[in-house]
Amino acid sequence: MTRYTPLDFVALMEKHGIPYHEKTLSQLFCDRSAKDILALLIDECREVQARIVTGCEVSEVRHAGCFTVETNLGDFVAPALVIATGGLSIPKLGATDLGYRIAKQFGIRIVPCRPALVPLTFGPADRRTYCELAGVALDVTASTADGQFREKMLITHRGLSGPAILQISSYWRTGEEIVTDLAPGVDLPADAVLLKEALHARWPHRFLQRWLAANGFPNDWRGLSKRDLAALSSAAHAWRVLPQGTEGFEKAEVTAGGIDTDEISSQTMQARRVPGLYFIGEVLDVTGHLGGFNFQWAWSSGHAAGVAV
Predict the structure, then answer these.
(1) Residue ranges of the alpha helices (H) in 48-191?
(2) Do 238 and 280 have their domain in common?
(3) Which of 28, 212, 248, 302 suits a disulfide with 217, CB 3.0-4.6 Å?
(4) What percent of the chain is helix, strand and coil (3-state, nearest 5)?
(5) Which span out of 6-10, 96-100, 216-220 was modeled with the highest average pLDDT?
(6) What range defines the domain where residue 156 resides?
(7) Are residues 150 and 127 in the same domain?
(8) What pLDDT digit, counting tens, does each position of 205-229 carry?
(9) DSSP string spanning 203-261?
(10) Residues 128 and 153 in one domain
(11) Do 283 and 277 meet the contact criterion of CB atoms below 8 Å apart?
(12) Are 236 and 203 in contact (CB under 8 A)?
C-alpha cells in the first residue's frame, strides 16, 4: 500500500476557507460537514469551466483510436478517458464495480478487493461475552503481523470498532488474530492491590469484570499468586482476539485492493498498456490511513492525470 501526506489537501481547504482540526497522528477532520468538501470540488470545477453531467448511466466503453462512452444521455467521445469511479465501499451512496469492469475489459490486472477501515465482528462466543458492553471504549494498541496502531477501541453490538480497529482492519486477514495491548505504555505492578488499582484506573469497571471472568481470572484478587499476577499482566498486554469477519463494504470507509499499481504510470496515472486510459483515486490499489489520506490520494492522482491529459 502506498503512503503519502495531506499537505496539498490542507492548502486546498485553506484556499476555500474550510475550517478543520487535527486529531492524533495528523488526522484531519472538517469542523462542520462533508458538504464543505463537495462545495470545494464544485467550485474548483467551475473555476476551470469543467462540465458536470449527472444522472448519466454508462452502458459500454469502446476504444478505436478514440474512446467512446455509451450512456443513457448519448455517446461521449474523447482521445483520453479518466476512470475515477471509486471503490466498492458504501454501496448505498452509489458505489459500483464499473471501474474494475473497464479495467478487465482492457486486460488490466486487478488485486482482489476487500473492505478496509472497517469495523470487525466477533464470533458467537466473543459476541456473547463482550457485546453487552457496546459503547465501552478503551485506549489500546492493536497489532497484526503487518501493522500496529495506538488509538481508541470501541466495543459494538457485533464486535469491535474505533480508530485503532479501523486502522488495523486494513492489515487484517481472515483467520488472523489481532493482538491488543489493553494497557499500552504501562508497566503493570506485580502487587495484587496495585495491579487492581492500575486496571481500574484504565478500564471501565464493566469491562474489567467481564474480561477477568472471560480470561479465567477470579474477582477475588487476594487469592492471586505471583504466577497468576504475571499471567494477568501478560494477558492485559496481549489480549488475543480472533475476529469472525468485517462489517463489509456497507460499513467500510475505503476499499483495499483494486487496479494493480504496476499497471499504471506513477507520474501520469496512465495505463501502461492502453495509451489514453487513466485511473485515479480509490479504484487503484492504494489505501491510506484515517484522517484525510485517502482524500489526498484522490486529489494527487487526479492532479497527475489532469496535468498529463
Answers:
(1) 98-105, 124-130, 163-169
(2) no
(3) 212
(4) 35, 25, 40
(5) 96-100
(6) 120-246
(7) yes
(8) 999 999 999 988 887 777 778 888 8
(9) S-HHHHHHHHHHTT--S-GGG--HHHHHHHHHHHH-EEE---EE--TTT-SEEEEEE-G
(10) yes
(11) no
(12) no
